[in-house]
């Protein structure tokens, strides 16, 4: 497998984490209750920290330093799926996005923890432990709210219906799929997707939320190849506003 | 983060609330406080003590949650990973402080929901300083370093007070604030010793924030309301002027050391008295702002109100889910 392929994999993971971490941090001071405000902030910190771990791996492979990579690229140079860049919206959407994304991420890190590239495996092993708690948090809240009353149930169902096509975009195949599988890096996006569908199905059933027939859904692809919604560039411009006032300065 | 300048009950209410107290119980209560004992939630306490403490802890909690807004707005713009991660953690701490403090106030019999309701309807106050805007990154650095420093001065004093749950919350809060202070100082050092543009940005922030910072500790003791009984009951542990003097003594030299100037030509330490002298802050402005007419009062409350409204369905759902469950008293 080429280094180019490995970088492609690391970039998409890092970019997903950074953008979702950034979105989750928007709840700071704005949460529906203090406890959730604090929880979203914790997860945001974990995610931004996780992205840093992957940008550091990329730096070791010869890419620029994490600050430059994260704060100076434009939207077309980002490889995150479109799900993570969508505006935070209301709490129902943010929660469902967190649920759908972290279930996928947990499986991804589980697989990468067995990766033959030692540096990647080590990072994945460590981060898997963090994401486990994110998944537990999401499961608890999805079940709790969906079973609480009609209002919450219907909000959660609508948020799920809206988010699912984007969530399938997490698994947009890379052009290096076969290389990863052959080199035993991980079992590939299709395998994560299959496992993910099983895992979320179990929780959603307990939550009383309906999953549509998968065949009727059209995955929103493009993010992995730099095609993004109108929301990513403004997010990046905001993120780099101060940094770019003087990129050579030490902040 | 919280300063002085608390709004206490007027003395007419004090006398009204005190006149029916059992003199024997009151004497025992005061003897306990004089011995340095802590008062706990289930202990007997005068009605006035309860009322003043609720008011004070509630104002403190509100200040934490409103205080998270001017800095929180810079999380999405913090320059670089180190600052972004640190600022997220810092503002999260502030929200956590609000949670701790609402818990401490709840032990005195007022629910969190009621307190938040009183905040967004403008009935309760919060620290005046958060009614000023953070125009630049340097403004957020000023808050992290110096507003938190001021808060520590005030909170360390109050941590020696008489109400157990509040003191314990303050001990935890001060430990976290000391990290905020280091973070803020680090940010300010980088700006003050950085490029000409960074230095200018930092100086402008100091110029903007100096007056609100002097207001932060509350009106001068000469004009502040009578708080004798609160001092006796160890509700108020240091006067506004004492806190302001301590802050100036600790931080003015540090600000000057960085080559920054302070926009008050009369600011100097009188070596004979050991006291800092300065231009008397504009207390009319302080009053105006605390009564709702500051640059950001409306915006801050509107944001908080919107957050409450957007999250209402979540709280309704939780209430539906827990109906019939036993009330769990907050940890304090």
Automatic annotation (TrEMBL), chain A:
Family matches, as InterPro entries: Aromatic_CoA_ox/epox, Ferritin-like, Ferritin-like_SF, PaaA_PaaC, PaaC
Pfam families named among the record's database cross-references: PaaA_PaaC
Spans traversing the lipid bilayer: none
Superkingdom of origin organism: Bacteria
Name of the protein described by the UniProt record: Phenylacetate-CoA oxygenase subunit PaaI
UniProtKB/TrEMBL annotation, chain B:
Start and end residues of each stretch annotated as Disordered: 1-21
InterPro entries the record matches: Aromatic_CoA_ox/epox, Ferritin-like, Ferritin-like_SF, PaaA, PaaA_PaaC
Source species, domain of life: Bacteria
SUPFAM superfamilies per UniProt: Ferritin-like
Name of the molecule in the record: Phenylacetate-CoA oxygenase subunit PaaA
Organism: Marivirga lumbricoides
Phylogenetic classification of the source organism: Bacteria, Pseudomonadati, Bacteroidota, Cytophagia, Cytophagales
